[in-house]
Design goal:
Radius of gyration: 16 Å
Structural class: mainly alpha
Distance between the termini: 41 Å
Mean pLDDT: 95
Shape: globular
Number of helices: 10
Low-confidence stretches: 188-192
Largest sheet: none
Number of strands: 0
CATH architecture: Orthogonal Bundle
CATH class: Mainly Alpha
Number of domains: 1
Order of helices and strands: HHHHHHHHHH
Length: 192
């Protein structure tokens, strides 16, 4: 299992540029948390990179992520990687509870990546000068980034045992490292 193979699998199953960028953002956050916690960065990164690779073809629960897990098994991915990916789906929580730090981190980073991206895209400087307070301000606006479940963002941080504000800033900083790849160096010129 390596990053190049995981990236090839992700691009094979995902045509949407925004979904690809989402998975890259989650990968960046997962890698940063792995470094911080002394965990295996490659494993955590692959989990972040592949967590939604099957979503475009099978968006309906429970096909996503169960169909993806079948593909991962066929391709020889380790069961701990597959279980971590399966655990990010709330509707599979009874079968695949979030117990290990990798599972809690994935859940905590997933929805938040979308909120950070949406906020950065509105800013003249993109993610460059984005702060947690700006993201939290946008989080309170129910009409903004409607697809992002605020309760999942809050529950994810709580279950992972991190302060929400610190978690948001940590993920922003992780995403800044690949801002060019994410298209977040400059926003569309909107206002906060």
């Amino acid at each position: 299992m390596d990053r190049a193979d995981a990236y090839a699998l992700m691009t094979e199953y995902t045509q949407s540029d925004s979904l690809r960028k989402h998975m890259l953002a989650v990968e960046a956050a997962m890698r940063a948390y792995a470094r911080k916690l002394g965990e295996d960065e490659e494993t955590w990164g692959v989990v972040g990179l592949l967590h939604d690779f099957d979503y475009e073809r099978w968006p309906d629960p429970p096909d996503h992520p169960l169909k993806g897990s079948e593909i991962l098994r066929q391709r020889g991915y380790p069961e701990d990687v597959i279980t971590a990916i399966l655990s990010h789906a709330d509707y599979l929580a009874d079968r695949y509870p979030r117990v290990r730090p990798i599972e809690k981190a994935l859940y905590a980073c997933d929805e938040l990546a979308g909120l950070i991206t949406a906020t950065a895209l509105l800013r003249p400087n993109g993610i460059t000068d984005l702060t947690a307070s700006s993201v939290k301000k946008k989080m309170k606006s129910k009409g903004f980034a409607r697809g992002v479940k605020r309760e999942d963002v809050e529950r994810g941080a709580a279950d992972f045992g991190v302060d929400l504000t610190e978690h948001i800033q940590f993920e922003i900083d992780a995403m800044k490292g690949i801002a060019g790849e994410l298209g977040l160096e400059r926003g569309s010129g909107g206002e906060e």
